[in-house]
Amino acid sequence: MVAAQKIIYYLYMLITALCAFFLVKHLFKRKEHKGIINDIVYALCIIPFILRILHIK
Amino acid sequence: MSEKLNNNITVKLICFIIAAILAIVAGIQFYDHRTYKETVVVSDSFTEKKMLSDYVPSLKNTMADTPVFFFDSGVEGGTVLYLGGTHPYEPAASLSAFVMMENINVEKGRVIIIPQANRSATTLGMLGNAYPQYYHVDTEWGSVKYKIGDRWAHPLDSWPDPFTYRHYPSGLQLTYQDLRNVNRCYPGREDGAPIERVCYAIMEIIRNEKVDLAIDSHEAAVMYPVVETYVAHERALDIAMMAAMNLSATKFYMKCEASPTNLRGLSHREWGDFSDTLAILMETPQPFTDWIVGPMTEELQTIGADEFLGTAMEHGLTYVEYDKNVGCPMKLRVGRHLSGAAEAIDWTNASFPEKEVVVNWPSYEELMEHDCGYFLHDPAKADTDKIFEI
Predict the structure, then answer these.
(1) pTM to 2 decimals?
(2) For domain B42-389, which CATH number applies: 3.20.20, 3.30.70, 3.40.630, 3.30.1760?
(3) Nearest CB to A51 within list B5, B27, B197
(4) What is the rounded distance in angstroms from the CA atom of residue B216 to the CA atom of residue B202?
(5) Which residue of B has its CA nearest to A56?
């Protein structure tokens, strides 16, 4: 059960990394909602994902 | 112009860089809190340090693993376990354990102290509450910094949470984050989630070390009914009741409540049900965790004077006497825990002479006279084998 927990944990970390990747990608390249406000929202939303991947928060 | 701005790669880069700067500024603080270690200089009665992972090996090299300090007189007698830091956002519990460890003198029996029961929860602050990360205790040799942690273990150490936490073995359904709450996971599971394993390890200490009296120290909001209280398992109820009556007559007001039989996962219930120990939990008044207080400052944590709580007191909304000009200073809360534990030991000695533990540490009166810093020792002048960073 401890091993299963570890696998699930690392899967969630992988999902977090994917979310961070797509947020960065869509910050710089997207087809809709191209306003500057959306840029700011995308940039701010990246922060918790980065901190989680780095094992800081 | 607007169209240009919207598609400008420079604008996007600036947004990204500002976000990165914010992440770095916040990240430095989070990292500092995650890695900061508190220092303790143990007394001459110290005999041995173990880790929880000695009882549950899967905790080794995790942030949930925490030190267990043994103070053994070498004279046959009973064994007492004192737990601080079950909820690290109640810091007088951990500080009382530190003051105890630095000044304890054991003449008969032995005392086991775990100052940071939920060590993982000491590595982050309360999410979203704008808490200060640290508080300071002044001593003659300088200021000592201690952490203010969270109620629950760090999500980095136990993630993801379930939608609903189902307590083992009762099956009782509790709020999801209580899977990271040490005082909701007893008796724990050897192969469970990290905090379930912590709880199982503490149960193993109680069972394997044959702990006769186990005390779990906490703090409670002034507007919470279970404040200035012993909560005792039915086998420890007489002891807690006598201790509460004696303390109320001689030192400070203390009441006593019986551990509810249907509320599972708590120390005062499961320690008693899943071992032979006498289980007691203690609560001191801590305005910092009240819901109506003003700014969440270090002063509110260390002094606890708050005008909103004073107004609540005037309207009869608090469960204990509260003076907004005095508050509930740290020395009062630490002193209450130290004398509260000593009183429980005295009544256990009186009830079970074969389990006698003769021990002393600073009392409530001494704390009120000298404050906490007076009882902390300078690591620079201590023997290196007596210094622990945890």
Answers:
(1) 0.96
(2) 3.40.630
(3) B27
(4) 11
(5) B31
